[in-house]
From TrEMBL:
This is Regulator of G protein signaling 9a. One of its GO terms (cellular component) is plasma membrane. PANTHER family: LP21163P, REGULATOR OF G PROTEIN-SIGNALING 9A. Keywords: Signal transduction inhibitor. Pfam families: DEP, G-gamma, RGS, RGS_DHEX. InterPro entries: DEP_dom, G-protein_gamma-like_dom, GGL_sf, RGS, RGS6/7/9/11, RGS6/7/9/11_DHEX_sf, RGS_DHEX, RGS_sf. One of its GO terms (biological process) is negative regulation of signal transduction. It comes from Cyclopterus lumpus (Lumpsucker).
Amino acid sequence: CELIYVGDCGSAGRPSMRGSPFQFRLEAIVVEMQDSKSGVKCSEQKLNISTIPHVITGVDVLTWITNKMKTTPEEVQAFGTMLVAYGYIYPLQNHKKLVMCNNTSLYRFQTPYFWPTQNWVAEDSDYAIYLAKRNIRKKGMLEPYEQTHYSHLHDWMNHKWDFIVMQATEQYKAGKERKKPDRVVFDCQERAYWIVNRPPVSNMFYQQAIMRSKVKSSVSLGALAKYVTTYKNHDPFLAPCLPSNPWQTDNDTYWTCNTRRVDVPTKMRVERWSFSLFELLSDLRGRDDFKTFLKKEFSGENLAFWEAAEELKWGTGSSMTSKAETIFKTFLAPGAPRWINIDGRTMGLTVKGLEHPHRYVLEAAQTHVFLLMKKDTFFRYLKSPVYKDIQKKAINPDPHNFSPAQLEQNAQSRSLGIHPIILWQQEEEEKAKAAAASAPVDVKAMMSKIDRNK
């Protein structure tokens, strides 16, 4: 929020300020919480050997916020934690834990002198004086993070360290003249202010990162080098397109040779199928060739199930229930015509999930089937006559060498391509024909029909 300074100055030469309406509203709530009649219940509590006045508990604060704001427990907890994190309320016991706990943990309201809207800058010299004063009081027994800051500030402000120690000594002597309860309260308020403005550095995520298992850099670099070596000839930025790059020459022969279901693919395209099963299935022409191989081996149910799962994942929401029912009857039900062989645990989770189908209900079974094809069927396909035959038939277009005049002519004779919706409609029609052609044969129905004809 934007802070606007006013002309006058507050106590100790610190500028007062006017904050945003949100800050005024927040501080009005804090003031209301301290009302003696309608505010949070407070009492005296004995802490160590000192009696601390106006102590509140976390559960009382959260109860008051709930009654005031009429909101959810989660929002109440978040609002209470925000008051602690910004220094309006501070904990008395675990002062480094800036969280509002819903129990009998003890808290106090921070004095308005230390509220964020006072906007007095938490300078390093002030923090150095505070640490020097604590060092005198604790006789050198600072907490580890405070000791680290103390050493750093001592090295950085060595030129005026005598002045800092003198200021700290004077403040320590002035504090000794106060009554003990007042002295303890002020020490708690000051410590709470610096906990907010100079919080301890947490290395929790750093420790988690160290403990996490990591791949050696040599292995990662080796995998990256292998990937680049494999795909470099298929990257238009690293190798020229054959016959030519349509974006540079305005000639669409490259796109024509690489349409989705072209009869004779290019050698580069067929070579890419051998990189991985994912590359093979991502190319519709490669998937058709893979289907031909599976059909000859009478083992096409795994790929059919994988395609059905993709249809469910990317299809329309209105047809989700009917597709899930069809998939169950075709692939998963006992005695299904195209039953797939997956482990019992995955089958149980999938069948249970189909009772309330969603897009990713078949994710586990689809992954299992994909891994089965990847480990076995894919490598048999690469060694099969089907793949070797398509390798022989594949074409390798000659590169185009257009002259400047021909390039200008290509640019002038450019025509619009096929609209994506038309391509999608054609693909849906082909899918429907393929589904009808590969529909499972009901042997019982066929036998009964033969018996009736007799």
